[in-house]
Amino acid sequence: MRYVSTRGQAPVLNFEQAMLSGLARDGGLYLPETIPAFDGLDQLDGLSYEEVAFRVIRPFTGDSFTDAELRGAIDRAYERIAHDARAPLVQLAPGHHLLELFHGPTLAFKDFAMQLIAQLFQIALTRSGQRVTIVGATSGDTGSAAIEAFRGIDNVDVFIMYPHGRVSEVQRRQMTTPPAANVHALAVTGHFDDCQARLKDLFNDHAFRDTVGLAGVNSINWARVVAQIVYYFTATASLGMRPTDFCVPTGNFGDIFAGSIARRMGLPIRRLIVATNQNDILHRALSMGEYRTGEVEPSISPSMDIQVSSNFERALYLAYDGDAGAIRQLMDELKTGGFAISQGALQALRAEFASGRVSEQETLETIRTARAFTGEILCPHSAVGVAVAQRHLEPGVPMVTLATAHPAKFPDAVERAIGLRPALPPHMADLFDLPERMTRLENDAEALKSLILDRRTQ
Ligand SMILES: *Cc1c(COP(=O)(O)O)cnc(C)c1O
């Protein structure tokens, strides 16, 4: 299994190398040269999540890990998800199901990918004796999932940038309270997009990159996408392996892109529906054919408050039939504000993806009505998904909305909607009592580099 960059000018890598490097050296994102067809769709019903994960992930890892290593990593990763089904499917209304992805240690779907890649990093680095420095940018949930997954993992230092004052208190505390010496939370002056831009600066500085063994675990890391393919399979298997629509609260396009890969492997997904909040670059791109950045407008679903959706580059690459030159040109145009998607590529995207945008008011109203009519308390991101899904329900086609976080992670928004604050699950009950530890940082690449050189384990 070989991995190529969407911009066509970086070395071809194997799975382990693509996982350890994150972003390609030409600024592109890695994708498998060919997407493997899945063999045995009719044999998944009733299997454990871990077994399905092994069967889905195995074809992507090539010879990077033995079967025993991969199975061990999967078992250790998912034993920390506090639900026997790992990703349980609950019914919201006739034909409408909610895929609960929030039973992991930091209460968001990102645990599914991060817990697994931490185990895979551990195996790969122990084998090679190499050290790496993981640097990440987060709108809240990636950072907490990364710090939680990598705290105490050997041969890894972790630095996570988050936008100061723009993450929820639960998200912040999940990043600032782990005492492990190898993890560092950095509060950056600016927005998530600033953090993401500084991260790209680091990756584009090849000398720095090599000095510290820079590795990325943002949602652009291919290994994360792979881990997220699994729950599309378990959900579709639970529904009898028939054509199913999925609605996905979307920011960086990682979670929904995993659905697109599942579809290309042969899973009977009919449509993938992108649900956005008022930061709707993806909805505008798919409905009008223009991918144009605007100003980030902070919302009550902060993990989707972005204007550059990194993984969309992968969908574009596939929609442009693997024309890396075309992607390089689009990404150049993006530096000056945006680009028009070609008619052919737009048609290909629309054959696969639908989209919708939800206002703050509708999000609150959806939390209220879901609670009133089903008893389910939705986090604001999941509510954005449910609201868009409701517009796309069709008789005879099951709809699955991904519930991306636990409501207790966003108690202020939930309280505004239904007048009560959801309780944290028991395993996190002491979060508000633990001491916090963070470093304030200006939105500046040089300051970031010197901090990393100073703090990392030599
Ligand atoms: C990260 C996140 C999203 C967006 O997922 P992408 O893969 O970036 O599209 C949605 N909801 C929650 C709760 C998240 O943490």
TrEMBL record:
The lineage of its organism: Bacteria, Pseudomonadati, Pseudomonadota, Alphaproteobacteria, Rhodobacterales. Its cofactor is pyridoxal 5'-phosphate. Its EC number is 4.2.3.1. This is Threonine synthase. It comes from Paracoccus nototheniae. Residues 2-78 form the Threonine synthase N-terminal domain. It comes from the Bacteria. Gene3D superfamilies: 3.40.50.1100, Threonine synthase, N-terminal domain. Coiled coil: none annotated. Keywords: Lyase, Pyridoxal phosphate. Residues 99-323 form the Tryptophan synthase beta chain-like PALP domain. GO terms for molecular function: threonine synthase activity. Pfam families: PALP, THR4_C, Thr_synth_N. Belongs to the threonine synthase family.
